[in-house]
Amino acid sequence: MAAANGSSEPDPRGTGGARAGARSGEGSTGLASRKGERGRHRRHGRSFHWPHRRAKEGPGAAVAPEATYGRNGEKLPTGLGASLITSGGMLLAMVEDVRMRGVVEPEELRPLADTFARHSAAKEATVRKVLTRRGIATTVVERDRQEGDLIQGILDKALTGRHPEDTRTLTIDGALAQMYQYLFHERRDLEPAIERALTPEDSESLAAAFEAISAG
Known about the structure:
The protein is mainly alpha-helical. The chain has helices spanning 79-101, 106-133, 138-159, 168-197, 200-215, and strands at 40-43, 46-49. Residues 1-71 are annotated as: Disordered.
């Protein structure tokens, strides 16, 4: 899943369902009240709505989202898969912003590094855990974990100024390019595995857990 120069794969900047323009300098806050909020919370200083979420009907009802279809008739992800893709799309928008501004200073990279860490933690507690437990796509899960840890390590070193001054820009830019490919492969490989592994009801329940962790 790591990025490679000259790759013929589609540009992942077109995936993820995020709105471009999310600013990496803005922080995220906790979940808003869940009553009547349909999965809303604050991300990067703005009100954000997980588009696949819908309100529960009745006390304690575990409601699976209705299947939705794209322009070409393909079934769109719901539940945990949609939460994963939406979170990844937000990260892609942040990466684009950082790269366009040529950010190399630690304080400017921190929002991206922190958001990626929460995204990874949410994925570890839900996506990776359930796929490993059910023996589905275990090789993909382990590769995803290793490459995510590698990217996080580069970002964490950048935050503490541990990259040599003369190579810092190239190192960080390489990590951001790798994150693009990582998030694209996450959508390509993990989301279909989630669809195979989970019932709609289980997927919806884990989606709520994913969103709570990624919100911080």
